[in-house]
C-alpha cells in the first residue's frame, strides 16, 4: 500500500500542519512516511502545499508529479494540481471561494464545506481538521487512535487542551464530505 | 533500536549533532537550513551536554569559529546553504591547509548568486573539487534521506578526525526540508579535555611543559616545505579512498544505469520502478561519498550496461566524474532541472528514454 | 675570534644578569624591521604570560600582516588566522575552553579593515578575550599600502599623493568605536616607543589578562606604533613623526575602564 497525497491551499489554512498530523499518525501506526512542503516566503499569505506519502514499503521519491489524492483548498491550487491526480484518483476540495470547479471526469471528486463549518463553529483554527476528517472518511488508512497521537505530537503542549475540539472536527468532517461525481 | 521520530532533515542534523558529542555549533541563518540553528537554540544543548551554540555575525565568522574550535581539538560544526557556503570558502581552504577537522553541511539551493531558495544540486563542483583556493579536497558525504542526515553527522565527525580534514555533508533543500521517520543513534558523550589532549596531540590545548608548542597554520613561506606539505595532503586524499561509499539499487540485471546522489537518487528510484513497469531494465548507482568518488565500482557497473544517465539538479557537474570513471566505454548523458526546479520521476523517465534507451 | 668569545664569557654570567628574555619568547630571530614596535609588544605579552604563570593555559591568535609569524616567537600554543578573522577564532576557543586564556594579536589592516565586522561583533558580544591591536597606519607586510588608520595626507604606495578623505575616507578610530559598545570592559590606547610608555603598556596588558582571569569581559588594547620602513624614515624619525602626527589622531590613554567610559568621545 502506498498513498501519495498533495494538500494545497493558502498559507495559514493549516495545510502543512494537517499533513504533519497525518504523517505523524501514519508513522505511529508503523508506516513509512514522507512530508515534503513548499517552503520559503510563499508560506506567508501565499500558496502553500505539502506532499505526504504513506506506505508500507520504502519510500523512494518524496517529490512527485502525480497523486492518488489531492486535497485542494483554494483556486490557485485547484488550477495547479487538478491535472496531477492519477486517473481513478480522488480530488477533495472546499468550494468556498472557488469560481472554476474541477472539470475532470476520470477521477472521483468530493466537496467538503470546511470553511463554512469552521465559521459556523466560531473557530477557524480547526478548519483543516474538518478537511482531514473528510479525507479519512474516504481513505481510512490511518486509524483514529493514531490520529489522536499524531495530534498530541504535532501540537505544542500548551495547545493540548484543544485536542478534543480537533478530534470533534475530524468526526464532523467525516459526515459533511459529499461526492460530486 | 534507537529512538524513532518524525523529523525534518535539518532538525535531524541538529539533533544528531547534540548526540554525536559535538562541542560547538556556529551558524548564521539562511534558507533552507535555518531550522538547524533554530532547533539547537530551542533545544538548549548546553544544558544537555555542554555543547556551545552561537549565532555568528556572518558565515565568514562561523567558519572561522570552526577554525578556532577545531584547531583546539573540539568537535565543531556549521551548516549553511549555497551563498553562505561560498562565503565560507576562504575559511574552508585555510582549514584544509592547516589540517583542521570540522563538519560543514550545505543544504544546497539554486544559484548562481542569490539565486533561489528552492532545492538544487549545483554546488557539486564547489564541494568535490576543493571549492576555495589551493590544492585540497573535502571529504564529501551526500545523504539522500533524513536518516542519513542524522547518521552522517556521527560518521562525518569520525572521518574529520581520522583524516584531520574538513568534512562536508552535501544535502539540498529537498532533504533538508522533508520530514521522514528517523531512528536516532544513542548519544555519545562529549570528549573530556584529557581525551582531546590524548586523541589530538596536535591541538592548541595549551602548551604544557612536557611538549613543544603546537602551532596551527596554513602558512609556510618556504616553497620546498610547502610542497612537502601539499604532497602530505595528497597522500591523505589518496588514503580517503578506503572510506568510499555507494549504493547499488536494482543493478544486478540492469541494462541501463542512472547515476544520481542525494534527492535526485530518491527521485530516480521512483523512475526505476516506473521504467521497470514498462520493461526497461534500469538500475541506480548512488554515490554516497562524492569525494572520494566511487569510480571503481561505477567502472565495474559500466561494463554491463548500454548507457548511463547522470541525473542531478544542475547543468551537469556530477556527469563529469561519471564520464571520468567509465572512460568513454559507454555513452553517458546528463539530465537535470536547474535554478531551484525539481525534476519529477516522470521527467527523469522521459529523459532516460530520449537520451539513452531510445538511442543505445 | 676565540679570544673575543672568551671575553664575552667573562661578562655573561648569572651573577651579572640584569635583564633576561622571558622564556615565553622563543629563541627565533624576530622577522621585524629594526626599530619596529612589534618586538617590544611581543615581549610585554610574553612577560605577562610568564609572570601570571599561564603559559600552559594560553592560546594566542596570529593575524595576517607583519605579525603573521607571531607564532614563531611566542612559546605557547598558537593558531594563525585568515586575514581579519582572529576574533572569530578567539570567540570559539574561549567559549569551548572557558578556563583558558585567549588573546588575538592584530594589525590595523587585519583588525580594522578586512576584519572590521569580526572585531565589532566579538566586542559587542563581550567575548572574554584580550585583543592586542597594533596600529602603525600602514600595511607593512604587503609593502606600505594605505590602511584604514592611515592619516589624512599621508603618502603610501596606494595613496601616492597623500590620503584624500574625499576620495579615500577618513582615518578609522576603531578603538573609540569599540569603546562605545556595551560589550567591551577595558579599552585603552598605548605606545611602546619610550620606556615610560612601555611600562604603561605592560600594565595595560597585565590588567587585560587579569580581566580575562576574572571573567570581566573583553579588553582591547591599541598600541600606536611606527613603521619606519613603510613610512620611509629612520626609526628615530619615525618615532618623532608618530608623536607629532599619529598621537593627534590617536591620542594615548585609557578610554574605558571597568566597563565605564573615562574619556569623552
Measured distance between first and last alpha carbons of chain A: 25 Å
Q: Number of folding domains of chain B?
A: 2
Question: In the CATH hierarchy, what is the class of chain A?
Answer: Alpha Beta
In percent terms, what proportion of residues of chain B is strand? Answer: 15-25%
Fourth-level CATH superfamily of chain A = Pyruvate-ferredoxin oxidoreductase, PFOR, domain III
The rounded Rg of chain B comes to: 21 Å
What is the helix content of chain A?
Answer: 25-40%
CATH class of the largest domain in chain B: Alpha Beta
Number of structural units classed as domains of chain A:
1
Tell me the total number of β-strands of chain B.
15
**Quaternary structure classification:** heterotrimer
Mean pLDDT across residues of chain A: 93
Describe it:
The complex is a heterotrimer of chains A (181), B (360) and C (265). Chain A has 181 residues and is an alpha/beta fold. The model of chain A has no long low-confidence stretch (mean pLDDT 93). Chain A is globular. Chain A has helices at 15-28, 75-81, 114-121, 127-138, 144-154, 163-176; strands at 2-10, 32-37, 47-55, 67-72, 85-93, 108-111, 178-179. Chain A has a single domain, classed as Pyruvate-ferredoxin oxidoreductase, PFOR, domain III (Pyruvate-ferredoxin Oxidoreductase, domain 3), CATH 3.40.920.10. By secondary structure, chain B is α/β, with parallel strands linked by helices. Chain B has 2 domains: 3-193, Thiamin diphosphate (ThDP)-binding fold, Pyr/PP domains (Rossmann fold); 247-357, Rossmann fold, CATH 3.40.50. Chain B has helices spanning 9-19, 34-43, 45-48, 59-71, 82-98, 124-128, 146-163, 173-177, 193-199, 223-239, 262-277, 295-302, 318-326, 345-357; strands spanning 3-8, 24-27, 52-55, 76-80, 102-108, 139-141, 166-172, 179-184, 215-216, 246-249, 256-259, 282-287, 289-291, 307-311, 332-335. Chain B has a 7-stranded mixed sheet, with helices on both faces. Chain B has a 5-stranded mixed sheet with strand order 10-12-11-14-15, sandwiched between helices. In chain B, helix 4 (59-71) runs parallel beside helix 5 and helix 11 (262-277) packs across helix 14. The radius of gyration of chain B is 21 Å and the shape is globular. In chain C, strand 7, helix 8 (195-213) and strand 8 form a beta-alpha-beta unit. Chain C has 265 residues and is α/β, with parallel strands linked by helices. In chain C, the strands form 2 sheets. An 8-stranded mixed sheet of chain C has the order 2-1-3-4-8-7-9-10, with helices on both faces. Chain C has a two-stranded antiparallel ribbon with strand order 5-6. Chain C contains 10 helices and 10 strands. Chains in contact: A-B, B-C. Chain A binds chain B through residues 20, 23-24, 27, 32-37, 39-41, 59-66, 153, and chain B through 4, 6, 31-32, 117-118, 173-174, 177-181, 263, 266-273, 342, 344-347.
Amino acid at each position: 500500500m502506498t498513498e501519495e497525497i498533495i494538500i494545497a491551499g493558502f498559507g495559514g489554512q493549516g495545510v502543512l500542519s494537517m499533513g504533519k498530523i497525518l504523517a505523524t499518525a501514519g508513522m505511529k501506526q508503523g508506516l513509512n512516511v514522507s512530508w515534503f512542503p513548499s517552503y520559503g516566503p510563499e508560506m506567508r499569505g501565499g500558496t502553500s502545499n505539502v506532499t505526504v506519502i504513506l506506505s508500507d514499503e520504502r519510500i523512494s521519491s518524496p517529490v512527485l508529479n502525480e497523486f492518488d489524492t489531492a486535497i485542494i483548498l483554494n483556486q490557485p491550487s485547484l488550477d495547479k494540481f487538478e491535472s496531477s491526480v492519477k486517473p481513478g484518483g480522488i480530488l477533495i476540495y472546499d468550494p468556498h471561494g472557488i469560481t472554476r470547479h474541477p472539470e475532470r471526469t476520470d477521477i472521483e471528486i468530493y466537496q467538503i464545506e470546511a470553511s463554512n463549518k469552521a465559521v459556523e463553529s466560531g473557530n477557524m483554527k480547526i478548519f483543516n481538521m474538518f478537511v482531514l476528517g473528510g479525507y479519512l472518511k474516504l481513505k481510512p488508512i490511518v486509524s483514529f487512535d493514531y490520529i489522536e497521537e499524531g495530534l498530541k505530537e504535532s501540537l505544542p503542549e500548551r495547545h493540548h487542551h484543544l485536542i478534543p475540539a480537533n478530534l470533534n472536527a475530524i468526526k464532523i468532517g467525516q459526515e459533511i464530505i459529499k461526492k460530486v461525481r | 533500536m534507537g529512538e524513532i521520530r518524525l523529523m525534518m532533515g535539518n532538525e535531524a542534523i541538529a539533533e544528531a549533532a547534540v548526540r554525536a558529542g559535538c562541542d560547538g555549533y556556529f551558524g548564521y541563518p539562511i534558507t533552507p537550513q535555518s531550522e538547524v540553528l533554530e532547533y539547537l537554540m530551542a533545544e538548549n544543548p548546553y544544558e544537555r551536554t555542554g555543547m556551545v551554540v552561537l549565532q555568528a555575525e556572518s558565515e565568514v565568522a562561523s567558519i572561522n569559529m570552526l577554525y578556532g574550535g577545531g584547531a583546539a581539538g573540539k568537535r565543531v560544526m556549521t551548516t549553511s546553504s549555497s551563498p553562505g557556503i561560498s562565503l565560507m570558502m576562504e575559511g574552508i581552504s585555510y582549514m584544509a591547509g592547516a589540517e583542521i577537522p570540522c563538519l560543514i553541511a550545505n543544504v544546497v539551493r539554486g544559484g548562481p548568486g542569490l539565486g533561489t531558495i528552492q532545492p538544487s544540486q549545483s554546488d557539486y563542483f564547489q564541494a568535490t573539487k576543493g571549492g576555495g583556493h589551493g590544492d585540497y579536497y573535502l571529504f564529501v558525504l551526500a545523504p539522500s534521506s533524513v536518516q542519513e542526515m542524522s547518521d552522517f553527522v556521527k560518521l562525518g565527525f569520525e572521518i574529520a578526525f581520522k583524516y584531520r580534514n574538513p568534512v562536508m555533508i552535501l544535502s539540498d533543500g529537498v532533504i533538508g526540508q522533508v520530514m521522514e521517520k528517523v531512528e536516532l543513534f544513542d548519544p555519545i558523550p562529549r570528549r573530556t579535555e584529557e581525551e582531546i589532549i590524548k586523541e589530538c596531540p596536535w591541538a592548541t590545548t595549551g602548551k604544557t611543559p612536557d611538549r613543544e608548542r603546537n602551532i596551527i597554520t596554513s602558512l609556510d613561506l618556504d616553497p620546498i616545505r610547502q610542497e612537502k606539505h601539499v604532497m602530505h595532503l595528497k597522500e591523505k586524499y589518496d588514503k580517503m579512498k578506503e572510506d568510499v561509499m555507494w549504493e547499488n539499487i536494482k543493478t544486478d540485471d540492469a541494462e541501463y544505469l542512472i547515476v544520481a546522489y542525494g534527492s535526485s537518487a530518491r527521485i530516480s528510484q521512483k523512475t526505476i520502478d516506473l521504467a521497470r513497469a514498462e520493461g526497461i531494465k534500469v538500475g541506480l548507482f548512488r554515490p554516497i561519498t562524492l569525494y572520494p568518488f566511487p569510480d571503481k565500482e561505477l567502472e565495474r557497473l559500466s561494463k554491463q550496461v548500454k548507457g548511463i544517465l547522470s541525473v542531478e539538479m544542475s547543468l551537469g557537474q556530477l556527469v563529469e566524474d561519471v564520464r571520468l570513471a567509465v572512460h568513454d566505454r559507454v555513452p553517458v548523458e546528463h539530465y537535470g532541472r536547474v535554478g531551484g526546479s525539481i525534476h519529477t520521476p516522470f521527467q527523469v523517465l522521459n529523459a532516460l528514454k530520449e537520451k539513452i534507451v531510445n538511442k543505445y | 675570534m676565540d679570544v673575543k668569545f672568551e671575553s664575552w664569557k667573562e661578562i655573561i654570567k648569572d651573577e651579572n644578569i640584569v635583564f633576561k628574555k622571558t622564556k615565553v619568547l622563543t629563541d627565533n630571530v624576530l622577522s621585524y624591521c629594526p626599530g619596529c614596535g612589534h618586538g617590544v609588544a611581543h615581549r610585554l605579552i610574553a612577560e605577562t604570560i610568564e609572570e601570571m604563570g599561564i603559559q600552559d593555559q594560553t592560546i594566542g591568535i596570529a593575524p595576517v600582516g607583519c605579525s603573521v609569524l607571531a607564532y614563531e616567537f611566542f612559546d605557547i600554543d598558537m593558531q594563525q588566522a585568515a586575514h581579519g578573522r582572529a576574533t572569530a577564532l578567539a570567540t570559539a576557543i574561549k567559549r569551548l575552553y572557558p578556563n583558558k586564556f585567549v588573546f588575538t594579536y592584530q594589525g590595523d589592516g587585519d583588525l580594522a579593515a578586512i576584519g572590521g565586522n569580526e572585531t565589532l561583533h566579538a566586542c559587542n558580544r563581550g567575548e572574554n578575550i584580550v585583543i592586542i591591536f597594533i596600529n602603525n597606519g600602514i600595511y607593512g607586510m604587503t609593502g606600505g599600502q594605505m590602511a584604514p588608520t592611515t592619516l589624512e595626507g599621508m603618502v603610501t604606495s596606494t595613496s601616492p599623493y597623500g590620503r584624500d578623505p574625499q576620495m579615500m575616507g577618513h582615518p578609522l578610530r576603531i578603538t573609540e568605536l569599540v569603546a562605545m559598545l556595551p560589550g567591551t570592559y577595558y579599552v585603552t590606547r598605548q605606545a611602546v616607543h619610550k620606556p615610560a610608555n612601555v611600562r604603561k603598556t605592560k600594565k595595560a596588558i597585565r590588567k587585560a589578562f587579569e580581566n580575562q582571569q576574572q571573567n570581566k569581559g573583553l579588553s582591547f588594547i591599541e598600541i600606536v606604533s611606527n613603521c619606519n620602513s613603510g613610512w620611509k624614515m629612520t626609526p628615530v624619525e619615525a618615532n618623532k613623526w608618530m608623536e607629532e602626527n599619529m598621537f593627534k589622531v590617536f591620542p594615548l590613554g585609557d578610554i574605558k575602564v571597568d566597563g565605564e567610559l573615562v574619556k569623552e568621545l
